[in-house]
Amino acid sequence: MAKYLMAVDAGTGSVRAVIFSPDGEQMGCVQREWSHRENPHWPGSVDFDWVRSWELARSCIRETLAQSGTPPDRIAALATTSMREGILLYDRQGNELWACSNVDARSSAQAAQLRLRGPALEREIYLRSGQTYALGALPRLFWVRDNLPEVYKKADHLGMFNDWLAYKLTGRLAVDPSNGCTTGLMDLQNREWLPEITAMCGLRTDLFPPVAECGVNFARVSAEGAADTGLLEGTPVVVGGGDCQLGSIGVGAYRAGQAAVFGGSFWQYVLNTDSVSADPECRVRVNCHAVPGLWQYEALAFQPGLVMRWFRDGFCQDEEQRARKTGRSPYELMDERARDIPAGCYGMQCCFSSTMDFINWRHASPTFTNFLLEPEKFNKYTFYRAILENTALLVRSHIELVRTAAGHEPEELIFAGGAAKSPLWSQIVADVTGKPVKVPVVKESTALGAAILAGVGVGLYGCLEEAVERTVKWERTFLPNPEHKTVYDGLYDNWKKLYPAQLALCDQGVTRNMWIAPGL
User: How far apart are CA 329 and CA 319, in angstroms?
Assistant: First the structure.
């Protein structure tokens, strides 16, 4: 009798449960959007409502079983995955005390206070952990200490959201290195907690739960977890990991030297390595991969997906109306017209996210430039294509940036996430980077990566390589167009001069930063 694998995936905007066959076929999926409320007392706060969020998560599990007609005893194992950086604090009895989402921005003052201690401290933390204050947990822990002293005093341990899901299912808590490392409180080399970091900063050193490697058959669904979700008591729960790292497994990027681009609200370029060292100039993020013995250099582009949503909602009402009538995506309709715009958009460019500079991370004011008042050339489809091209220029910039830290770059790219559904965008990425771009059949790969780990953890597959070969399938490979590559080479050279000039205007107070790291 066939067995199936389940993934529970807690993203920034939604939670879902997905059931896969051992061959990677999706058998069922139920997703629920969730929102994380702002506390009006704390500007920039994004609290995580663990009561409501668990209600949504467990309903997804129960409904996915029902929707797919899968008996609970046919689930061989499950694993959990989630957004990174969000943290929870628990008391000694295991009750949640406080939690914030990954986009929480309440701790800018604490980050600024940490920076007043001098750049040497942040650099030392980065060289050992691969993280800076920009996304790490240190400023948030300082915020809790300063503003919620009773919570800080009662806290017994911290955790991430994927291990919180596993904890709700099993009653056991352990943090995996792929997500735990994003706190900036783990040693990259040995993939364990580094209490010396909190000690150096004057914070508690006793908040760290056990670490369990990704893919370990860790625990089983408890009686309470079974009653909540409809899963069978005793179902194995395998240690999952962070969304980007499990997404890498879900697109087959599990070996050293492979690279992937994930195009969603944020765009991540990751390069796998089997020997890690941090960037001496602290520009690139370095994380533990979900594969033991591997790490990832990561460069982040801020908000390309949100820029696209802004452009769609602000300028593409006609396409949205047609999409509702035809059942097609408004982006697909925009792509059809943008294909007619020549590569390079007649020289027009835009600026949104900048090349990553982890220790001094800021973005210029959003800008379109070099367009003329000629509507036959410069219409909304030109502006739309310029956004696509700008994001691909960022990918090229991040490939070059990571090469300076890692010493090499990949021969080809794997492209996944929502943006990979666009053949036009995929082709532009290939043309701008000059690299073949492979697009998998499963674009939303994070859940598949969790299911693969679950199957490996319980022996459904002989090894990770077998699991990937069996589950990851390719839709298409986009080859670079040499003529377009020549055009984009010139555009890229111009963009590298344009963006620093835009940042300088922000530094002078003439324009406003699109985003700036806490404390800068």
Answer: 8
